[in-house]
Design goal:
By secondary structure, the chain is of the alpha+beta class. The protein has one domain: Ribosomal protein L15e (3-Layer(aba) Sandwich), CATH 3.40.1120.10. Helix content is 37%, strand content 20%. The protein is built from 8 helices and 6 strands; from the N terminus they run ααβαβββαββαααα. The strands form 2 sheets. Strands 1-2-6-5 form a 4-stranded antiparallel sheet. A two-stranded antiparallel sheet has the order 3-4. Strand 5 and strand 6 form a beta hairpin. The protein is globular. It starts with a helix and ends with a helix.
Length: 189
């Protein structure tokens, strides 16, 4: 087995030593800011699988997102039935929100992809891989230069965004998912 396969097995099995190490990490992460740029990925196997390469113009950001229900803004005037529900049900997942927040923190970059590195009762941490749009090394790269279209994460073009839009399914039974649920709703109803 190669190195990446060993690292993958560690994250899958989660033996006692690994769990203790992860707890110690998360204690440190809680004291940090919500967006922290890091030198190298925590899960190198996962980062490489989703497109990370150690080259100039490629950044890795650890993003913290609060877990739990998303509550509405304060109810102000009027007594309507819509105000009776304090909980919002959004179609976005935590990973998509983490990607968007990382992109807001680094506006000159574009989100390539992300993966989870830990979660506890309060927070979830994702590592987001960002590409610097104007960097010469990224512009010269055949693959990365095609990805750096503006606003990928906000249009749901990352892996987490596609999952939230229901585009993981293909073939029979998934005809109404493409080009998007909203576009097909008007066409079919």
């Amino acid at each position: 087995m190669g190195l990446y396969k060993h690292v993958k097995e560690l994250w899958k099995t989660k033996d006692h030593e690994f769990v203790l190490m992860q707890r110690k990490r998360m204690v440190e992460w809680r004291d940090e800011d919500s967006s922290v740029r890091i030198d190298r990925p925590t899960r190198i196997d996962r980062a490489r699988a989703i497109g990370y390469r150690a080259k100039q113009g490629v950044l890795v950001v650890r993003q913290r997102v609060d877990r739990g229900g998303r509550t509405r803004e304060t109810i102000r005037s009027g007594r309507r039935t819509a105000h009776n529900y304090h909980k919002k049900n959004l179609s976005k997942n935590y990973q998509q929100i983490a990607e968007e927040r990382a992109n807001e923190k680094f506006p000159n970059c574009e989100v390539l992809n992300s993966y989870i590195v830990g979660k506890d009762a309060i927070s979830a941490w994702y590592e987001v891989i960002l590409l610097d749009r104007a960097h010469p090394a990224i512009m010269a790269d055949k693959i990365y230069s095609q990805i750096t279209t503006k606003g990928r994460v906000y249009r749901g073009l990352t892996s987490a965004g596609k999952k939230g839009r229901g585009l993981r399914n293909k073939g029979l039974g998934a005809e109404k998912a493409r080009p998007s649920v909203r576009a097909n709703h008007g066409r079919n109803n």
